[in-house]
Amino acid sequence: MRYTVLVEAVWCPALKGCHSQGEMQEEALENIREAVAAYLESAQADGLPLPADVTIHHSLLRGFRTLSLEGL
């Protein structure tokens, strides 16, 4: 049996609590870019250290991307 699934939630594992969603994949990716930028700006404003990125090691995990935030 096959079922359709929707992938609309996105999160940044390195930034605790930083997540978003979207109607379509591109919208979800744009929303997480904004969420990551806001998270980093808030951390910098509060004088908090920026966390290091995490490495994903899971052979079944597909569809993750690395985002580049120029100027931050």
Put the structure in a nutshell.
With 72 residues, this protein is α+β, with helices and mostly antiparallel strands. It has 1 helix and 2 strands.
Strand order within the widest sheet? 1-2
The major beta sheet can be summarized as: 2 strands, antiparallel
The structure class reads alpha+beta
CATH topology: Double Stranded RNA Binding Domain
Radius of gyration: 14 Å
CATH architecture: 2-Layer Sandwich
One letter per element, helices H and strands E, the order comes to EEH
- The overall strand count is 2
Name the helicity range: 25-40%
| Number of structural units classed as domains | 1
CATH classification class: Alpha Beta
Q: What best-fitting shape do the alpha-carbon axes yield?
A: elongated
Distance between the termini: 46 Å
Mean pLDDT: 83
Poorly predicted parts: none
Strand % is 5-15%
Annotation field: number of helices: 1
Tell me what the structure shows.
With about 70 residues, the chain is an alpha+beta fold. It has one domain (about 1-70): Double Stranded RNA Binding Domain (2-Layer Sandwich). Helices cover about 30% and strands about 10% of the residues. It contains one helix and two strands. Strands 1-2 form a two-stranded antiparallel sheet.
Write out key terms for the chains shown.
72 residues, 1 helix, 2 strands, Double Stranded RNA Binding Domain, elongated, alpha+beta, two-stranded antiparallel ribbon
